């Protein structure tokens, strides 16, 4: 059975991605840039609009950038 992505706030997404060996490189406006500690070519951009929930298609794109599966992401939450 395929697990569905939850609808969550960007702050929670950032927290989960940080647990996957990423660090905050910088923030420009409302977009946070994260980089992987070991795989230096992995870069993830997360829009941080805290008043709104993150749409599933945006979260799916973030997971693709971070090279994380849905199951791996759900474990990090």
TrEMBL record:
Keywords: Endonuclease, Hydrolase, Lipoprotein, Nuclease, RNA-binding, Stress response, Toxin-antitoxin system
Species this chain originates from: Candidatus Scalindua japonica
One of the record's GO molecular function terms: hydrolase activity
The organism's place on the tree of life at top rank: Bacteria
Family membership noted in the UniProt record: Belongs to the HicA mRNA interferase family.
Protein name: Periplasmic or secreted lipoprotein
